[in-house]
Amino acid sequence: MTSEAAASPLLELRKVNKSFGVVHVLHDVDFAIYPGQVTALVGDNGAGKSTLVKTIAGIYGRDNGEYLVDGAPVTVHGPRDVSALGVEVVYQDLALCDNLDIVENMFLGRELSTFGLLDDAAMEAKARETLASLSVRTVKSVRQSVASLSGGQRQTVAIAKAVLWNSRIVLLDEPTAALGVAQTRQVLDLVRRLADRGLGVVLISHNMNDVFEVADRITALYLGRVAADVPTTEVTHNQVVELITAGRSGDLGIRDVASATI
Question: Structural domain tally of the chain?
Fold first, then answer.
């Protein structure tokens, strides 16, 4: 696991707020993603994880607060702007098409062409190269239909698709949900390899075993507020559970938990 680095964040949100009508979902949220590190984003249902991820992804705008990349404020109007910044999100539904093969899925909507014709050879070569660079050995052929893949293989293809576009930051939404033990192992190994390549990785997960195995940092949300942002080595499993469920654990967490419930 990567040691705590002095590197500056690749991406940072500062004092971000987001409301939907009268419902205040994110409260002065600070969140940072570092190169070469896996940051686990944890929280109970309704804590604001999805809203935070969609704010990073440009799906939701911010009510206020700063969005910085490499320390400089940027203006984000939508997902296309975020992709141009090197940020990719792999959602839980994976957004893969069963009737297409792996190559077609990886280049869906971004197909390569030469003289107006699809360049299948170039796309297949890039797909193979990307999977090889991630040390993926569980996929027999890049021409397999996605319908024939296991859950772990699908997750691998979705992650490789995100990495294909020279992304610097990858956000993974519950990547091991509904996977068996062996498939979970494959995906967690891949998550770790992404960070080892210098990418900033965000792992959104309810599985504390996964979090403690691969994450360098843990950011715990409680009712839309950051209860803690700490190196994984400095907290215990029980402390993280308490932060998620109560917003506080000993000296760690939100000082006035009662105000957070208002």
Answer: 1
Task: Give the whole-angstrom CA distance, residue 114 versus residue 170.
Answer: 29
235 pLDDT higher than 90:
yes
- Residue 120 phi, psi dihedral angles, 5° rounding: -60, -40
Phi, psi of 226 (to 5 degrees): -80, 110
Residue 111 pLDDT exceeds 70:
yes
Is residue 8 assigned to a domain? Answer: yes
- Residue 63's domain comprises 1-86+203-262
User: E-assigned strands of 34-168?
Assistant: 38-43, 64-69, 72-73, 87-90, 113-114, 117-118
State the distance between the two ends of the chain, measured CA to CA, in whole angstroms: 38
135: confidence class by pLDDT, cuts 50, 70, 90? confident
234, part of any domain: yes
Q: For residue 32, what is the domain's CATH number? A: 3.40.50.300
